[in-house]
Design goal:
With 402 residues, the chain is mostly beta strands. The protein has two domains: 1-35; 36-401, Porin (Beta Barrel), CATH 2.40.160. It has four helices and 18 strands. It has helices spanning 5-12, 18-35, 102-107, 183-187, and strands at 38-50, 71-83, 92-100, 115-121, 125-131, 138-149, 155-163, 191-200, 205-212, 232-240, 252-261, 271-282, 288-299, 307-319, 324-335, 347-358, 364-375, 390-401. A 16-stranded antiparallel beta barrel has the order 1-2-3-6-7-8-9-10-11-12-13-14-15-16-17-18. It has a two-stranded antiparallel ribbon with strand order 4-5. The longest helix has 18 residues, at 18-35. The protein is globular, with a radius of gyration of 24 Å.
């Protein structure tokens, strides 16, 4: 470390000390590095009333269940540190997002209380996988390094733990039009541990492709018998309507496919395939948007000889005023193996959710939601005695975002 002659003179006179100067320089370096990092997050709370059904055999959508029925809930505290890529050719950055609270247990990226599941692939190959536990109320939501390589328009890389490339909804509820998650989100993967490349072909089209350890969210999970050839592969493409298309401008369509080893499998060879197609469309009506989502999940070599789940979703959002918006979601689920039913009973499901959001306070998302789930198969699913086909829920949700 170099000091100018005036600094050396002050040190010789005893007015300053070199160690203090060194600490000051180091502190400035830390401050400079920290200046490019942003801190953000949210605190998500809710109150829920399940009308007349009790709190057993609830609709099996993600982040729901008996633990949130008929009561007040701290859902999750989200903290994120982010240094995004800049415009330089060899840009680098990172993103770290941590979850605290009950929803962190549901996300289940922690290895706390892990267990091992073993099985066989139709009598040919064996597999063994460690499935993460969920008792710590802490999860690494995402943690990855971002890199850019100046090839063509620039390839952006994520290396670490990142969100899946499929899905209409986000794992972070405040980013979604509705508070409760859809069945489409429920059957999708959430995060992957691996590497993901994104490339913008032009203003209209972009592609993503990646490789990960497993289909499921567990950090450090993998097939311990065949690590080298049991991975998950993913590819996706997004098309965005240009400004020249008038009222259709910024409408987008995404198609993505994921295939590979499922760390949560309990039977068969553990492989799962997931196809997703989603479309968000602007309309001629100011403030009105519509959306469609299709999720198809196939579990290979399950006990039943193969398990298929189809989820069809329709979305509508209307921004009535600067503060007031309304959101409607409808879904139909065709579930051959009982992935989305509380008693693991194969059958069909309908779901209709209506959400009103009014942003009264600054930085605060506040909304009220009415959700109706209907089971079409027999025996019926819901309630303490498990013989109701309808489940109705009211929920109030408040989230402070910073």
């Amino acid at each position: 470390m170099k000091f100018n002659k005036w600094t050396v003179g002050l040190a010789a006179a005893g007015i300053v000390t070199l160690p203090s100067l060194t600490q000051a320089v180091d502190a400035n370096m830390v401050q400079t590095m920290a200046a490019s990092t942003t801190l953000s997050g949210y605190v998500d709370v809710s109150a829920q009333w399940n009308l007349g059904t009790g709190n057993k055999n609830n609709p099996a959508y993600a982040y729901g269940g008996a633990g949130k029925a008929d009561g007040f809930n701290l859902n999750v505290v989200d903290l994120a540190l982010d240094k995004p890529l800049d415009e330089t050719p060899w840009s680098a950055g990172y993103h770290v997002e941590l979850w605290f609270g009950p929803d962190a247990n549901t996300l289940a990226t922690s290895q706390s209380g892990a267990k091992t599941i073993s099985g066989t692939d139709s009598g040919e190959d064996s597999f063994s996988v460690t499935v993460p536990g969920s008792s710590s109320m802490f999860a690494i939501r995402q943690a990855y390094v971002t890199l850019r390589t100046p090839i063509g328009n620039g390839i952006d890389w994520k290396i670490g733990v990142f969100d899946t490339i499929v899905g209409y909804e986000s794992t972070s509820s405040p980013n979604n039009p509705n508070f409760t998650r859809s069945y489409g989100y429920t059957v999708e993967p959430t995060t992957h541990e691996g590497i993901l490349a994104s490339y913008k072909i032009c203003d209209v089209a972009s592609v993503t492709a990646g490789v990960a350890n497993t289909f499921g969210p567990g950090i450090g999970s993998r097939n311990t018998l065949f690590v080298e050839d049991t991975k998950v592969y993913m590819v996706g493409m997004t098309l965005t309507a240009p400004k020249s298309m008038g009222w259709l401008a910024d409408s987008s369509m995404t198609v993505a496919y994921i295939n590979g080893f499922n760390n949560a499998a309990t039977a068969g060879n553990g492989d799962v395939s997931h196809l997703y197609a989603g479309f968000t469309m602007a309309t001629p009506v100011t403030g009105l948007k519509a959306g469609f989502a299709l999720d198809y999940r196939h579990e290979h070599d399950a006990v039943s000889g193969g398990a298929d789940t189809w989820v069809y979703g329709l979305y509508g959002s209307y921004q009535a005023t600067e503060k007031l918006s309304m959101h409607l979601r409808g879904e139909y689920v065709d579930d051959s193996v009982g992935v989305t039913t509380p008693q693991a009973t194969p059958g069909g499901l309908f779901e209709l959710t209506y959400t009103v959001q009014y942003d009264l306070w600054k930085n605060v998302l506040s909304r009220a939601e009415l959700r109706w789930d209907h089971g079409t198969s027999s025996p019926a699913h819901y309630g303490d005695n498990g013989n109701l086909r309808d489940a109705v829920m009211l929920v109030a949700n408040v989230a402070y975002k910073f």
